[in-house]
Amino acid sequence: MKKVFFLIATILLMHTVKTHSQLQFIDDLFINYSKYKVEQIQQRRFEAKTYFQIIDSLVAAGGEMILKTKLGKSFKGFPISLYKIGNGKIKVLLWSQMHGDEATASQAILDIFNFFIQHKNCTDKECESILDQCTLLFIPLLNPDGMRKFERRNFQEIDINRDALRLQTPEGKILKQVQNDYKPDFGFNLHDQLTTYSVGKTRKPASISLLAPAFNHEKDIDDIRQRAIQMCVLIRETIQKYYPGFVARYDDEFEPRAFGDNIQAWGTSTILIESGGYFNDPEKQEVRKMNFIALMNAFNSIANRSYASLHNEEYFNIPENDKLLFHLLIKNCSVQKENHTYTIDLGINYSERLDSTRNKYIEKYEVVDLGDLSTYASYDTIDVKGLKINIGNVYPEIVTSFEKLKKIDYETLWAEGFTTLIYQGDKFFEEELNVTLRQMISTIKEPLRESQKLLGHSANFYFTDEMGIIKKVISNGQLVFEQ
Questions:
Q1: What is the DSSP string of 32-48?
Q2: Which end of the chain is more exposed for a tag (fewer CB within 10 A), N or C?
Q3: For residues 194 and 42, what is the distance between their CA atoms, to the nearest angstrom?
Q4: What are the tens digits of pLDDT across the range 272-319?
Q5: Are residues 183 and 281 located together in one domain of the fold?
């Protein structure tokens, strides 16, 4: 009896030590992330040449730690490569940016490489365990053609993630061949999702959404999917520790053409990670950090098999993705129309558009919904209770001289209800302009013609009190004036 008691006590002690060690490992990753973050890339858009230069320098710094293998070429002939770290029996495959405009996890992979390089002497026991137990296989950029244009699809205009059956894309064929050749035990399908997704009804953005994809219409759970479910639970617990309430569960409707669903069916426990939005994080650098921490702890858990103690109900209790977020919510607008006065809210989102004069992508804010939006949340909220909404005026003169543009008295423009100024000069040095003035400038080549309807209108408004005095001015979704 004493022997049995001693054995049980020993097992419990080992579990406690392992759990404490795991928690310390996660804390170290979170606290020391700046040591591992590859600083050369800080934005979602980056050049493929820059990305691969960084990877090549990391491979060189790692010596024999990181092994690079060329897998093939994209439709346009750009190389697609596999990077291997570790020599363990458990094979883990990660692929990122199969949609060319979904780059968050691709950046996190650089940070993961940097972590292992900094621990290449294996002084960290968790690192040593990962490298001994796992073989990590990375395809950091599966769709280089789409990435070069920051577009979802490849050069054939095919969604690679809907090509698992026909295999008409060279990129899809490469992914299928890697799965066939290595038969990975785990697969991480790394994507980005819209920043307007929320965690259920919580009004928080779904910064990370997880899914253990179904492998049939019945959504059955076999041993393969079971491990994926447990891994989702582990990742959620990891992120919850530092970002409580920002993890959702992705819709698990079976998609027979998708790679995630099929790779699950082909015998690899597959986990979808979707990177969404987070407050004050337009370039998703905080979400990048979430990816890094989640994936590193996933490797650690796979190495020591601690995920096996997690339960299915914890996965199904994760709130599903909902769409209850706007980028901007303007509350309690007073509208006067045909002798009627009523109150509405404006839900405003932005899309990114290339401004050729600025030579950069800018955020264009537009009204996407209006009415009673009290059940919605937003990244930013402006309350205009008691104020009448007016569609902003466009400055009547098209400015063609940059010197004149710099001298514009934008405060006077606000007082007259102007929210937009059109510039069509032959040079443009944005850094020389006041930040607020930048916000008001449009460089379109055609005269601005907008409907007087609010729905679909650009977010350029001014708000007046009962005396007609301007109290707030919103230019392209930004509050530029308030009194």
A1: THHHH--TT--SS---H
A2: N
A3: 19
A4: 999 999 999 999 999 999 999 999 999 999 999 999 999 999 999 999
A5: yes
Of residues 126 and 232, the one with the higher pLDDT is: 232
**What φ, ψ does residue 198 adopt, rounded to 5°?**
-115, 165
Q: Domains in the chain: how many in total?
A: 2
How far is the C-alpha of 456 from the C-alpha of 327, rounded, in Å?
Answer: 15
For residue 244, the enclosing domain spans: 19-322
Using a 10 angstrom Cβ sphere, with 0-12 exposed, 13-18 middle and 19 or more buried, the burial of residue 31 is exposed
Name the band, by pLDDT with cuts 50, 70 and 90, for residue 3.
Answer: low
Does residue 6 register a pLDDT over 60?
Answer: no
- In b/e form, how buried is each residue of 74-89, taking b as 16+ CB within 10 angstroms? bbeebebbbbbbbebe
Residues 334, 293 share a domain = no
- Find out whether 472 and 384 touch, Cβ atoms under 8 Å: yes
8 Å CB contact between 424 and 399: yes
Kindly state whether residues 310 and 330 are assigned to the same domain: no
Residues 304, 171 within the same domain: yes
Average pLDDT on 440-455 reads 73
Same domain, 314 and 329: no
Name which of 383, 150, 161 is nearest 274 in CA terms.
161
Cβ-based neighbour number of residue 2 at 10 Å: 6
For the stretch 66-97, pLDDT in tens is 999 999 999 999 999 999 999 999 999 999 99
Q: How far is Cα 145 from Cα 136, in angstroms, rounded to an integer?
A: 25
